[in-house]
Amino acid sequence: MRRLIVIASALLLLTLLGIAWLESRHVIPVALTPSLTGQVEYCLSCHGDLPEIGKSHPVKSFGCVLCHGGERLALEANLAHNSMRGGKNPADFSVVQASCGGTICHSGSTEGYRDHIQRATTSIQATYAGAIASIRYTFGEQPDLTAHLGTTAIQDSQSTSGITSLEVFNPLLETNPAVLAFGQTCLTCHLFAQPGQTGGRYDHFTGCTACHTPTQSSDLTSIDTKTATQVHKLTTAISYAQCDTCHNRGNYDLRAITFQPRQDTPTDRLHDYYQPIAQFTKCEYTLDCIDCHTRTEAMGDGNLYSNKKQIQYIQCKTCHGTLTGLPQTLTITDPNHIAFRQSLLNPVIELKPGDNVLVTEKGEPLWNTRLQPDGTYELVGKATGQVFPFKPVMGSGCTQDPDDQSSGSCHKCHSVER
Amino acid sequence: MNEPKLSRRDFLKLTRTLLLTASGLLGLGGLIRFLSYPSQPLAPTEFDLGPASNYAPGSRTVLPDVPALLVHGETGFTALSLVCTHLGCTVESQPDGFACPCHGSRFDLLGKVKRAPASKTLVSRRVEIGPDGKLHLFTN
Q1: Closest to A61 (Cβ–Cβ): which among B12, B16, B87?
Q2: Does the distance separating the beta carbons of A17 and B26 come in below 8 Å?
């Protein structure tokens, strides 16, 4: 009996020691009560070393749970992460509405293109409708180039483009072997899809963060430095290198319906830039893609389209004008003008009321440009902050055809070979 | 001289006593730790700002802990919350008003909206001078 009591005592002590050891492994709680939610959360107990994701989403105001989900009171990793949205990426399109949506956030009014989620998820970069329609038309599976299928089924009764819905493209229902092969090998680069290539310079996230979270750097001094490490970041200063993760990985071989990844290792910007093109005007490789292409071109305007040419409209004359006309400008006087907010989110330029900025044919302000007192213009690189002065065509010796503003036409005189 | 031998019974008794004492101390320590664990304090709704005489007439003092701006004007003390009415960021005091660093809202010196996306005026905070001459700011 005495021996049993001793054994029981020993077991009790061991149990208590075990509990004390487990308790000692618990993290020290660090509480945060974000001003936006007013609910305490303990995520910073483990993640206090993460950098701020950006000045528009300060952790003191937003906290972590509002965007990422998760169990805000849990201190144990598995439990805390159990109900996170989208794993590490709450902006994946499968969960983006819950993570980033809301009328005061990114599902705002359609006025002024504020409904970012609706625009992005119906954009040609998300639906991939143009490529699907093109391939199906090429191989005789549909009578014209109008998009009927997309990466996901989408209804949009408000669409003014003539297309109000897309059915989902299911490669397994295709009878043509080429279309089937396309479906099986070429559907990894729309915004809904996980990247087909992983590692190194083509790594990117899905959804909003495919563009707004930089996984790549434009620093080409060493190819190794092209992979950035800070991914807890949201930015509108998007380098061309981020666009390259989809748009410059290589070329499609349409005869074999295969993708041929790039084999070269560019060491300068001219050779790194948009590999399928052989000739460039200087601005095509010294600027970043977003310096010219607008937010509706990149993220859509809320309508469904059949191909990118229906939404991509910026031409050389948007900034340079023609022989007979200067580019359009707009004097910004309304303090609530979207140009001010855009320049605040990416403060490479300090716009003031009364400034003249270039404006596109559709009325979108090119907020990173400004008319100078001497009649010339300047553009500030959105990703680099570099200032690029430039002149209008009017009054120059240019012999352009005002009706042909394609890059090919301008390349005739202004090309840089590589 | 023969050393007294520890009998088996005494050895078991001693071991049992040691084990139970250690267990008791460990359990007691855990209990004390549990009982002394600080609960999450509620966010304060009253702030002691010290003697009113510390704030000269005409002064505008940013109180980062609140956060609020204390103004000693002609009619006495007033305070304005520095929490942006758009999405809760802390606005920055500027010579001509307030600017939100997060999304660009602007407010005039009285806290009225000058530029969206905020649509509501900055909230006023109640300020009182206590019998001891100290200023108290209330956020509720």
Answers
A1: B87
A2: yes
Q: Round to whole Å and give the CA distance between A410 and B64.
A: 56
B11 in the same domain as B29: yes
Same domain, B106 and B133: yes
**Helix axis angle, B8-35 to A2-24, nearest 10°:** 30
Please indicate, yes or no, if residue B2 is contained in any of the structural domains.
no
Tens-place pLDDT, residues B82-139: 999 999 999 999 999 999 999 989 999 999 999 888 999 999 999 999 999 999 999 9
- Taking the CA of residue B48 and the nearest CA in chain A, the distance in Å comes to 21
Closest-CA residue of chain B to A8: B16
One-character DSSP codes across B87-115: T-PBPEEETTEEE-TTT--EE-TTS-EEE
Min CA distance, B37 vs chain A (Å)?
A: 11
Rounded to two decimals, the pTM is 0.85
ipTM score: 0.76
Q: Do A341 and B23 touch (CB under 8 A)?
A: no
Do B80 and B133 lie in a common domain? yes
A323-379 confidence digits (pLDDT tens): 999 999 999 999 889 999 899 889 999 999 999 999 999 999 999 999 999 999 999
Sheet holding A356-359, edge to edge: A329-331, A356-359, A365-366
Nearest to A16 among B23, B83, B114 (CB): B23
